[in-house]
Structures
1.
Amino acid sequence: MELKEVKSKIGSVKNISELTSSLETFSALKMKKTQKRFLESAPFSKEMARMLKNMENSLRENRSIFLEERNVKNVLVCVVASDRGFCGSFNSNVIKLADKEIAKLRANFEVEILPIGKKAVGYYERRENIKYKFFGVGDYWRFRDTKDVTDFLISSFLNDKYQEIRIIYTHFYSSFLQKPKSVKLFPLGIDIVSSFIKEEGDVDIRYKLEPSPRVILDEVIPVFAQYLVYQYILSANTSEHSSRMMAMRSASDSARGLLEELRLVYNKARQEQITSEVCEISSTKEVMD
């Protein structure tokens, strides 16, 4: 390999290394910002857990239209992916789980898909007849951004357009661990509520409920559903930034390794060129003598 070619490759790899390092740093900052939003919602979730704890018996008795099991004919599956790439296997993992879940559901029901995020939209529009989609929010989902999604899901369930609604997203456990997860949003299961109350810890404060648990539940559950959808999408958003950070870190490490190899090749080629030039000078001197 010629010196000029090696030098050009070293320059290209160095530029790529700097780019991936910058993307890694930006992704880490974005991940921290989305994690902060989880903490900011803590007071709301604590108060919501207290209210639901007081109505736990009513929840178990399905005293709300949002809790009632229906004769299922049509199922809506929401698949949450990212708007951007360069995030490793983040999108492929959630889509792989979604395809598996959709295939199981289609054995018994009519299934429609609601893709959220450009990568999910692009994937399913090539394969399905997509009627509804949400995308273009960017790096940070805010509570008001998820309201449009939740309003659509609630109205579709209340109007009996879909008798069951599921959300498939990537759950954020830590910076190094994120896993795709499938949850049933409607009808709302007591297991989701019980898990939520348990996560919030000590919430044993009693309220006097008026006018009735059913009326209150019909008002509270849509708010709770909106909070859940926000948390699911925010978790996927955090997982996206974490996956991108790890992917860019891996790319940076690979680029640095390749850079070292190219520098060794360059030094070896340079040494060979110097040796060749010295030999030519010596040979020329001998001829002249």
2.
Amino acid sequence: MEVEYGLLSVFVERSSMGQLIRPFFLLLSFLTLAGCSVLGPGFPDERIVRERVLLPDIPFYAQEDYQCGPAALAMLLAWNGEALLLPALTGQVYSPSLEGSLQPAIVAAARRYGYLVYPLDQPEALFGELAAGHPVLVLQNLGLTRMPRWHYAVVIGHDPEQKRIFLHSGRREAMGMSARLFGRTWARAGHWAVVVLPPERLPATAGESSFLAAAVGLEQAGQWSAALLAYQAALERWPDSFGARVGLGNVRYTLADYEGAQRAFRQALLLQPANGAVMNNLALALAAAGYRQEALVVIGQGLELDETWRQELLRTRQKIVADQPWAEGGNEQN
């Protein structure tokens, strides 16, 4: 089935002015999500880091030359239970011309396996994830700012008393590094860090907007079933999440669960009754299920209530009126 006009994606952005909804058509730049903040010359506040943590049974893969990226990602995927061969993963992540791996390639590879990649936006979040039992993939600059030497490693623990960080790094398993040195090398790499988890499992430090953005990444990787699990997990944590309800509706629509999509969009409209984008998507789901007249009523309501999406609503109405086939075996309403 070909659909000329697709769903309108929306993304929740919080600000001091309230909750803003804007179109979300473009691919998220993962690097903009990673964030940068400052880790001091040791550990964060002692109230955050109190007890020694050393995660047991984190798989270790010794890296080959310049291939720390594939090795680090392989450790996290294996920790999640993936049976994989490192050479196959290397082909997805490693760039021979660069003699290294770019962050977007690592993120894309993890998503291809159906995992949610969540960026940590504060150094304190690293310790929060470790406390929850989640290893953290980090990027370090082991060289100088002007002469960088990039390196991926997996943080598996810390000792606040000794002020040491433990990493699977290079060819060394559970290597100890002073917190001061780790903080400097991590800061020179922009404090880039991620956790890789099953989509139904929320990071310990998850924030609503960042988690929804990570779920959108699964959608854009074509991992619809994984994205569905992520949005369901988001609603368990944030039952009134408008963005999660819209995302759930969009994914159910893509999976041809038009009744489920309608329920999700109607629940979103309970939170924002005059949102034209959601009305457009609800109309699409209704029409796909064969309920054209009800879909046209929803389009009319959207045109009355929300000028922002007028052109999209008009195009959707035109398509419905044109009586194009929406779904085989639908319940056509005349």
